[in-house]
Amino acid sequence: MIRQQKAPGLERMQGMKPSSSVSSLASAEKQDVTLSSLMHYTRRPSAKTTGPLQQTSRRHDDRLEEKQEVAEVDDRLKGPLIPKKKRKKKSLITVNLSGTRYDVIRQMSEKLGYAIAKDDDPNSYLFWNDCFVATDRISEMKSFQRINHFPGMGEITRKDCLARNMAKVQKQLPEDFSFAPKTWILPADHSLLLNYAKDLRAKKKTKTFIIKPSNGAQGHGIQLFRNAEKIPQSEHFIVQEYIDKPLLMDGYKFDLRLYVLVTSCDPLRVFLFDDGLVRLSTEKYLAPTEANINHSYMHLTNYSVNKHNEFYEKGDSLSSGSKRSVQYFREYLRQNDINDGLLWQNIGDMIVKTLIVSEPHLLHAYRMCRPGAAPGSDSVCFEVLGFDVLIDRKLRPWLLEINRSPSFGTDEKVDFDIKSALIEDTIRLLNIKISDKSRNMAAQKAEARKRLFRQNKRADGPDISEYEKKRQSIEKRKEELKETLARLRKVSAREDYENRNRGRFRRIFPPDDKIRHERYVQLLSATFGIFMSGKAPAMQKEIQRVYNNKLKEVDVMDMLAECEADEKEGKYFTGGTGKPRGPKPLMSMPVSVPSPLEHDEDEDEEMEDEETESMSASGSPSMARQGYHSRRPGSSGRPDSRLSNDGTSSTFNSRPNSGVRSRPTSNMSATNQRSRSLSRTGNGKHTPLQRSTVDDNFLMSVVKEREDELTRKTLVALNEMRIKFPGKSDQEAEFILDKLHENWKFHKPRIASYWLVKLDSIKRRKVIDIVRSNVRAVLLRTWRVSDVDSLKVYRIFNRVFNRLLWSHGQGLWNCFSSSSNATSWEAIFSKSSENICEAELNCCRRIVQLCRDCLLIVYQFAAEAKSSQSNTPHPSSVDEQSSTGQSVSARDKSLSLIPPNTQTMSQKYSKLYPTTRTQSMGS
Ligand code: ADP
């Protein structure tokens, strides 16, 4: 059901008392004011038909009447505008709340004047989901839309992932990350835990441990242990050192639920809400002993646990009961002469550092989902996180966990007061505007044009003149400066808006304090180094540029002016003062066409014709040269044999009808069309009329045909690729893959455990990245573009890669299944608005196949590395390979052999390389 809210303005208009003339008109005649009704006044009976007296009085009356009529006509003429306006429905910002059960979100959306959309409305501006959202969904979002989750946030919100990531940073930066209690992930760290307990015993110390399910919530499955040896080796649990000296309030243990809003990860922007919940336990706290460790009302502070205690007090204010406000808590500290400001600052610091740990994961995942998005553009994702913080007696904050779907239930007054303000301020900070949609469409159009143009431009062609190179380099510089300028303006506008609309939020990253800012930027660089080793240098450079950019708007404008002055000197414009040096560019050379990129967006409309013509001029000759090559000969006997290049597959069924675009008409007609387009541009001059007759559809079909051609070439290149097994020939690698398939029953559980359990998300991603980076290289070569990210085909591939990583690697694992699961990834396209042609789909299939092969080879390599390490001959059947902690080290070793950056990766470990045949084909 649509619950549509009327715009306040509209309501006011509808409820408005009509002016007297309008009302009299309406009541007197109750008819529509149409042209015919207006005509009636011009055809009044003439005065001649009546007597003189009557005539005089009539004349007087007439004049009066006429005046009145003129006024009425006037009103009638104006009148229709009012009902017309009334009829015009004012468009509203719509919010899709089908994914949330919390009424407070609806209430606050309505308070802000937003309309609640139909449950199945995909075009809403804002989506609010209680559960995590699949990466596909985020990929499909339009850039004016917002959704309340980030891909990759699980890296800090799942307890085991948080523990693993924290352990990594603690190793290198112990001082900065000491706020997370010591944690072990079971079963892998079980022996480390026992060793730790042994050390404690040797030192005659005892500690309490708390165990929690890795993906648990609301206190489910939590237990305390005084003796670490008694902790079971259960899967999917973590063990934490218990903070046994918590700060107490009225003798009760409590924790804080703080709310943190992340509005963007590219770049990172974080806000802390200045209030939250204090959740008290309901049994007075005592240090843990064997006798009380099972008292959950004493040791756990969850509302979901304590509400079952008869002593749970429902508070009717913010300062009483078992749930209170953080503001009250700070007041309580002040009354007890405790510096609450310092504590609050330390808490903010802890939150920022935690998000710094998440940033490499967030950025990577976000860019994978939104490859075309310009850095600094509005983020489609935002997230309200619930940080659970424990304060100890020394007033040290400890990070217990982070909730990606904190409860917005409003059982008590304190809940409603805090959460409603939080949601209202969150939505307001997102700065959603009705115009975002149209701006998005315009930007998309501009981007499509840019893309189409680029596809036909061969800036790096061997026949390019010096003069042209110079011209292009100035253009490129101008373009970069314009982008920088736009980015700077956007940032300052955004900051301005945030400062005026942050409500009770305070921005904690980037912080205003310069020293703090510098430290955080250093930490960001360090975490990229830790999590992305190979890519780190590039990322670190980018971090400096984004977060430490001292460039001011005026500087950029100066540089731009300089650039334009250079250009005006006209060294390369034939009409300019200077003469171009070097050979005169040929008319048919695509590079001779002025780049549309040098124009502002508002000039786009005028540019359109020139651009499209230049595309036809530049695109066609190269198309004519490009031939479609023969099919690749037979493939290996494995069930997943390579796909033929004509878009059919021996093992995969082609996708059912829908969404498959038909190929353009015959080559013959396309060639004719091309030559027509060429001859029109032959002299390089066009009359406005000629320009206006350029047929968009025709151009689109030419470009489409070219895209199809290149997609087919891509498929050929992908089919030529093989995963290289270090130190082995191609045939040997093929043989290994065949053997793995032959002994599939044996290997299946081992590979499943290796991929799904032992590899963490970064390592899983690295496996997929081996294929991804090589696919990028193929696209670069085949499509001859500098910006692969903007290619539609790459966006499609990225969705497949993301799908394979979906659900902690389950996506790829499903592809090994013999059931229909094997092609379940194809479902990502069935709901998509994007049309995928058969050749694109076949490329995707080939990519999936390469990813499967890649996993098998990495797995086998790890197994061989392990067996050679233990000096036992490696059985092709990998008999001794256990799925326990031991093989983790072998795996770690093997993966460390995969340098994450593409170059070394391709040199050393798992290069996917085209065979000689591909090279000889020169693609
Ligand atoms: P859940 O997601 O199930 O709520 P938490 O990690 O938040 O799990 O733990 C639940 C409760 O257990 C916390 O609110 C806190 O009171 C207590 N707790 C958890 N970890 C610790 C710890 N390391 N030291 C002390 N108390 C803890």
Give structural notes:
The chain has 923 residues and is α+β, with helices and mostly antiparallel strands. Helices cover 51% and strands 10% of the residues. The strands form 4 sheets. Strands 9, 10, 11, 12, 13, 14 and 15 form a 7-stranded antiparallel β-sheet that branches. A 4-stranded parallel β-sheet has the order 2-1-3-4, covered by helices on one side. The two termini are 55 Å apart. Residues 1-67, 69-82, 571-694 and 872-923 have low confidence and may be disordered. The chain binds adenosine-5'-diphosphate (ADP). Adenosine-5'-diphosphate (ADP) is lined by residues 181, 210, 212, 216-220, 222, 240, 242-243, 255, 300-302, 388, 390, 400-401. Adenosine-5'-diphosphate binds at residues 181, 210, 212, 216-220, 222, 240, 242-243, 255, 300-302, 388, 390, 400-401.
| First-residue to last-residue Cα separation | 55 Å
- The coarse silhouette is globular
Helices, by number, come to: 33
Q: Fraction of residues in helices?
A: 40-55%
Proportion of residues in extended strands: 5-15%
Q: Over the alpha carbons, how many angstroms does the gyration radius reach? A: 34 Å
The average pLDDT score comes to: 73
Task: Describe the oligomeric state of these chains in a short phrase.
Answer: single chain
* Main sheet makeup: 7 strands, antiparallel
Total strands: 17
Q: Look at the helices and sheets and give the structural class.
A: alpha+beta
* Ligands (ions, cofactors included): adenosine-5'-diphosphate
pLDDT under 50 segments (min length 5)?
A: 1-67, 69-82, 571-694, 872-923
